Amino acid sequence: MSERRPVRVDPRFLEQLDAQLGEERGPNGEPSRIDFLRFELPAIEDDFALRFEELGEVIPGRPDYRQIITTGRLVPAIAIVGQLTADGSVLLLGVELDA
Q: b or e along 21-43 (b: 16 or more beta carbons within 10 Å of the residue's beta carbon)?
């Protein structure tokens, strides 16, 4: 089994999430920010924590930046960029949703 890297969320990630999802669920059942953090983010954190080297490079020649593009339980498409930091943890930098 792979070693689990610590995963942290950058404030810019949360700002981007806030700009895309509201505090409350939408009138047609659209997920809220809390729904995303509770139901979508844990599996994505696991991927960054356990499979960082297997993820796609965002910037050619910069293996410290990786991206996950996936489908979610509540959001049809999710793209998240993470950076491997000097202490061995992964910092999630940005999120783009197709909500």
A: beeeeeeeeebebebbeeebbee
